[in-house]
TrEMBL record:
It comes from Brachionus calyciflorus. GO terms for cellular component: mitochondrial inner membrane; respiratory chain complex I. Its main location: mitochondrion. It holds the Pfam family GRIM-19. Keywords: Electron transport, Membrane, Mitochondrion, Mitochondrion inner membrane, Respiratory chain, Transmembrane, Transmembrane helix, Transport. InterPro entries: GRIM-19. Belongs to the complex I NDUFA13 subunit family. It is found in: Mitochondrion inner membrane. Complex I is composed of 45 different subunits. Interacts with CARD15, but not with CARD4. Interacts with STAT3, but not with STAT1, STAT2 and STAT5A. Interacts with OLFM4. Accessory subunit of the mitochondrial membrane respiratory chain NADH dehydrogenase (Complex I), that is believed not to be involved in catalysis. Complex I functions in the transfer of electrons from NADH to the respiratory chain. The immediate electron acceptor for the enzyme is believed to be ubiquinone. Involved in the interferon/all-trans-retinoic acid (IFN/RA) induced cell death. This apoptotic activity is inhibited by interaction with viral IRF1. Prevents the transactivation of STAT3 target genes. Complex I functions in the transfer of electrons from NADH to the respiratory chain. Accessory subunit of the mitochondrial membrane respiratory chain NADH dehydrogenase (Complex I), that is believed not to be involved in catalysis. This is NADH dehydrogenase [ubiquinone] 1 alpha subcomplex subunit 13. It comes from the Eukaryota. It is a single-pass membrane protein.
Amino acid sequence: MSKPVNYKQDMPPPGGYASITYKKVPTWSPKPLRIVAALSLIIPVGIWDYNRRKHVALKSMIEDDEGRQALEPLMEAETDRLILWQMRRNRDEENELMKDVPGWVTGTWFGESLFKTNPNFDKWVQPTYYEAYSHTRARDMHQHMYTRNKIA
């Protein structure tokens, strides 16, 4: 009825297994005095480093502002020069375009001046994009407006 056993049963090692720890395992945590000592050393170092970095950043920002202020007249003069160059191109284009129209005077609309000027007003008035780029395609003007405003 029963067959002979042809396997070996696992048995405990000689002397038995090690005992199971079931009592409370002690835990470690830093002592409050050590925490206070560590914080009293770390916080002043952090405050000193923060103030030092703030001072360096302020000096860098002041230097950047001074450089920007120094270049501002140069950039404005360059912008004015480019606008005048474009206005001259516009005038030349208008002369070329309207050369066959009898009685046409450049810068006027059938004899009426397009530019309202005051002889007592000696300050430069920045022309609009539509005035400066009147003889260009709309997409070129808008592309120039986008790139110019993107840089500034």
